[in-house]
Amino acid sequence: MSENTTKTPMLEVKQLSISFGGLKAVDGLNMTIDKGQLYGLIGPNGAGKTTVFNMLTGVYKPTSGSIILDGENITGKAPAQINCCGVARTFQNIRLFSNMSVLDNVKVGLHNQMKYSVIEGALRLPRYFKAEREMNSRAEELLKVFELEGEKEQLASNLPYGKQRKLEIARALATNPKLLLLDEPAAGMNPNETASLMDTIRFVRDNFDMTILLIEHDMKLVSGICEEITVLNFGQELAQGVTSEVLQNPAVVTAYLGE
Amino acid sequence: MRKATKNNLITCGIVLVFFIVCGILSSVGIMGSKLSGLLIPIGIYTIMSISLNLTVGILGELSLGHAGFMCVGAYVGGVFSILAQDTITVPWIRIVIAIVLGAIAAAVFGLIIGIPALRLRGDYLAIVTLGFGEIIKSLANNIYIVKDINGIHFSFASPVTGTDAATTQDIFKGAQGIKAPQDTTLLLVVIVLMISLIVIMNIVDSNTGRACMAIRDNYIAAESMGINVTKFRLIAFVISAAIAGAAGVLYSHSLAVLAPKKFDYNFSILILVFVVLGGLGSMRGSIIATIILYALPELFRGLGDYRMLIYAIVLIFMMIFNNAPYFVALRQRIAALPIFDKFKKKKPEAAGGASK
Question: What was the ipTM of the complex prediction?
Fold first, then answer.
């Protein structure tokens, strides 16, 4: 946190709301994430955390409110456009391109960085080779970071669970985002895997100069790496602030553990 | 060499070897005229099945009206050739232009169908293409075009007669179809097949193909990777339609008469059967399935009424062979036999790891 904090925040969410029929899934959420921050979004099941992610990435259009990414209003844009603006995500239930190789999964992420036309691809014009070479080396670099380079020819669906999670992060990073959204990255992981994941997330933040917003249920991970958090309950903000303080908040403890 | 490139070269090699060997056999006279006559349709059907595989196997959208695009190409190219018969006398120039025109016409139809249908998910495309195939067939059934000294006359309702009876020449006679000049040669079919195959395989192994497969595997994730889903679905669909159109031109120029009823629902399904049994997304599979499944019923003609029975048994067997867990395991075991080791010198460890 240096002079970056004084500039425009990476993400500014104002009065974000969405309702499905009569149900207000998210109601008046405000959130500000600074550049380079590791921010957590937590809350009990059904609190609306993934819905927030879906609004941030354009899968759902918010009923009201606004989303400002690095000074640019991205509210209501289509998912592909929002990705091009600089938001990438992973999914709670892993959504890899399961019948494609590990390398190709990452190359799909690089799709918009090294463009060439259909005709250049079909006729194998020089631009194709140049772009493909560049893509391959970039993709392999990313895979090396996540220790996946040994499996690059394998189908994504054949990877063990923990590596699939890593591949999802690598693929998201390939789109060269400013803001990375991780939806329950530690779900289904054992303590050792979680610990290595925490290192990975920190590494990504430091080495890729990334701002990260993550949803997580694993409190050890949240308290271990998140600098600030927002707690959601029934679609509404319950608490917000520095992680250690918020987790002591009686209202938060009640929401998680009951009376 | 990259694995994908190597696989593609093998596929091209299979096609070339098959047609060269068959071509030599038939020119030497070892292969009967009946079998030699099958080569051109086999080539055309192969073009159809690889182009449909682009839509069904790579893009993952079910298209039930592929014959409709072939029909558009066949008649646009055919009508052009009949009209140009007197002005362009060199057959190969005429048919090359006809192929280009047929492919463009089919691509335009693909675009018209694709723009509304591809915005939707699920079974809509299957229903729309099914309807499209039938509409094109019915439309062709009711087109009448004649040419005479005063120009071209056409009608969508009833047979037309030219104003000058002496010079009237039928071009399109409704349900009786067209009589295009028989310009299609085996060499031309093989050239078009190779071009289509290379273009399709290059596209699959490029940005566009990866985008399409990403959309097929996970629509939401593809969108969140910044892929313009509608655009890439449309591109693949239009390319597939254009190649089917080119196949149609070859088809109409290989038959003495081509009636619209040929392009019915069953034709589309037949191509789909080739694609599904050959393996979705596998161009080599489509090619082999087309060759076997097209040639078999003809080879079994001697069996009379039993031939379709045997054909059905072959279909069922291929389906089981491709998908039943026992056969999949059996194939893997056969592939793992020591005698095959010399074919896969590279990375025996990686192969072992994959099978675990």
Answer: 0.90
